Amino acid sequence: MAFYIVQFLTGLASAASLFLVASGLSIIFGVTRIVNFAHGAFYMLGAYVAFTLTDRFSGALGFWGGIVVAALIIAAVGVLVEMALLRRIYHSPELFQLLATFGLTLMVEDLVVLIWGPSELLGRRAPGFKGAVDFFGQNIPSYDLFLIALGPIVLGILWLLFQRTRWGVLVRAATQDRDMVAALGVNQKWLFTSVFAVGVFLAALGGALQIPRDAVHHAMDLRIIVDVFVVVVIGGLGSIIGAFVAAVLVSELNAFGILIFPKISIILVFLVMAAVLIVRPWGLFGKQEGPARRTPGLTVNPWRTLTSGERLAATAALIIAAALPLFSGNYALTIGSEIAIFVIFAASLHFLMAVGGLASFGHAAYFGLGAYGVAFLAKMAGLPMIVSLLLGPLLGCLGAAVFGFFAVQLSGVYFAMLTLAFAQIVWSIAFQWVTVTGGDNGILGVWPEKWAASPSHFYWLSLGIAALMVVGLRIVVFSPFGFALRATRDSPLRSEAIGIDGKRIQWTAFVIAGTVAGVAGALFAYLKGSVFPDSLGISLSVDALVMVLLGGVETISGAVVGAIVYKALNIWLVSQTDLSKLVLGAFIVLIVVAFPKGIVGMLETIRNRRRSASAKSALLASPIETAE
Amino acid sequence: MKLSVQDLNSHYGPAHILFDIALEVGDGEVVALLGRNGAGKSTTFRSIVGLVEQRSGRILFEGKDVSHQPTHAIVSRGLGYVPEERRIFTELTVEENLEVGRQPRRSNAPHWTREKLFALFPNLGEMRNRPGGRMSGGEQQMLTIARTLMGNPSLVLLDEPSEGLSPKIVEQMVDAILTMKKEGVSIVVSEQNLHFAKLISDRAYIIERGRICFGGTMAELDGRPDIRDAHLSL
Amino acid sequence: MSMVPTLLSVEGLSKSYGGVHAVRGVSFELKAGEILALIGPNGAGKSTCFDMLNGQKDPDSGRIKLLGEDTAGRPPRAICRLGVGRTFQITATFPTMTVRENVQVALVSYRGQLFNLWSSTPWFEQGEAGRLLELVGMGGYADRPCGELAYGDLKRLELAVALANQPKLLLMDEPTAGMAPRERIELMRLTARIAREQSIGVLFTEHDMDVVFEHADRILVLNRGSLIAEGSPEQVRGNREVRAVYLGEGLVYDARHRKGLSV
After folding, report:
1. SS3 of A517, please?
2. Any idea which architecture C1-83+167-263 has in CATH?
3. Do B233 and C183 touch (CB under 8 A)?
């Protein structure tokens, strides 16, 4: 019995940091409507800076002072980030904000290694809380008891701050309608900055307080952010109480999950999350979100099918691509195959995002499942390549059917966070379930059969399948189903009123996208001859997002162009620098801020402007008054 | 002169919405801005308070050009704005809604306190701790005006205060606006309902396709049925 | 009159939120080809009533019989499939499609082709889509992007979309809100004409008394969740209670409709 109580208390202690970070994320989201992906990075920075300060200054004052000062320093860094970056993207769509803050995370990861080195750092024990308390023969670290008390205290302080001060009233008002707050004479810029500072302070404090318990390392940002996303999805984004309750719930599930399913403890959290989402889709304490914001300057030009000239040009481009083996070597062909595979992957995500309006942050899950599907079939069942290629993607299809069912119950940022959490769960299973997946060592020796083994043959196979998939998706875009999907995205209210079951349509789209991603993953397994958990990882999901974004979310052909440009750039970059994350992160931030419409979107804008330069003056005079 | 707008031009993205808008409001005056839906009434107001980013021209408020200032700076000079959609903070109570609008006292404008506003809008006084979201449309319209008055404005822009309200509430709105006027607040009210505008206004402008096409007293407007019929489609 | 079928019959409809009765025991009937207005002060329960009829909210108690079927608790899409067309207070259309495509999507749904992955929608039921657009006077706008339309045209497009499933009943929530007076009259004339020709029942809420008195065959007046009056425009105008709680002195609407109001 005592053992279980101690396990429970350990869970409570872990909840403290999780609550601090999650409440910070919730507060920032409440006002700025930005889901700050970089929150994990601030948490990590708080830990690193606290490590340095507590290491440098001795004594109790040095320790506790170091912790608080570290959080303050990071809060100041947060203020700079808010003023330099976030102020530029407050009116951008959620997807862009998530990506920009993810780009920031990537940059911080490389910077941390640059400053503190790649190895784990062990922090000081907290003065006054070094020992342990005996509890019926079980030991509880006294620092854990301190953390257990801290959680409710911070909760109380935050409650007072929001309910009893003018600042709190203004923040709550801005949470609902920021422009109206400005229209009442409140300088909302500084309100936002102060809110961001408070949120970052909480994250950094959460990180700093972890140093007596855990080693500091450069991957702790992603680990905490996934936990935090799970917490806010369960508790309800924007709710501080929700963050507290869910942080306790998740920490306890982790504490006891290890006892029940030692290998795949994350399953338990997933089951609870799924249960909560079925009963309360917006979290235990959350409120339903309004419809997602639209892309700025959304093209009013409706999509149209290709003209015969354009069809000819596309065919010509395909023929030229198919001629590549005639004049290039094996290395170029391997890269060509990889690009073709990523065209499929990007096109599948693009279908979900651009047509369905569903920005998945975990699309790699279905890519990776397709790859593992092929690996299982080819290696374990020993099936021929054709059969594996046909059946392997079905694992992606199955995963998309299960996760998609839950994901489409939500929209906007909730959808993004949930898909990310799902992907992370699949990744964890692949990583932890060593007996089946080989864990970190992956599954090796998935080689194509002789007929497809040569680089040129495999290239043609990849190119052919890519062309098939892109044409197929395009047909679906203009099919009645594609229109129903767009209708659901454009106006859920109207589509429901004309008899469309939006959730079922979106679920179907999710399954289609997951299956096509699975096809890409299946080819990828054969290209590399092996499968690793990386194929399910966050960074691959984000790669796909960047490809779509780079090409242009609002276009139909953007994904193809985006995948080609990005993949080529990426391969070149990795060969050029060790700080690829730093460069990539900066690149993502740059696209979001400077080129939100992507390459194809920009070309279309230029073309439209030129075409209608004369006709436009008539249109401009027509009365358009936005009801905003 | 309370407010003087000269050569105001506004754009939303590529669309040119307002063309060379000029209008003036004297101290203590109630001026109506009339026009159809989409004629540019809301955009004019939003441009004056700086909620439309792409705007050019001169906006003199109490003799000072505010056309390059951000919204909060313009509003905290004493230029109050009540938007068309009311935009009550539904999660906040009546008193908290008023708190958001509170600004320091101003020498050249009437000073409003909660108690004074509760006397003007007795309904609100009876529901001080009720969340804004649990109020009826009419009560919300009262609250949104009271909230703006908490900023002690010397001029208020009222965007379509009668829209979506029952006739009975509209009549109460007439009384409230006349009281504000008596206290010394200058008011610009945008309207489609000419009956309503006539009850409260001294002068009127008519806006059509982003251009001002008439300006004059209500009596002058009555004498020009041609203009009224062409632009107000009554 | 007795031969005209009853489209909608509502009995004892009630709904409360947190102890507050939003709608209390509302009962009424609507016949084919009839235009029925639902009016009342803000907060009287019109929206709640409407939301229950169109499936966005579930009633606490009471029955809604639509074309003979009990629809209480069914989602809006199911109610649409029974033959109900809807327009919204703030127009809901698909801004990234052309005008014609907006109608085509509704036709896709009506024809049960939602999961058709193959056909080309731009060619789907072009003739029928064109006919519906002609009906509301939008034939010339078929290829225009919907996002470019003026507000009055959007309202007419919405009407065409609402008519795509050959409805027996139109539910219109403040159909003329945000429109200029002349546009209001034109839209309601159009609606009334279509309703008479195709014998469609229309239920609408509205604050513009000029529109209500001009076009409604019958008026229901709701106050504090209960029906306080029901009858022809003349009867409702002459009702003392309705004047007290809603119509007021008639200063703010057209003189033509003030008859019988002077106290």
Report:
1. helix
2. 3-Layer(aba) Sandwich (3.40)
3. yes
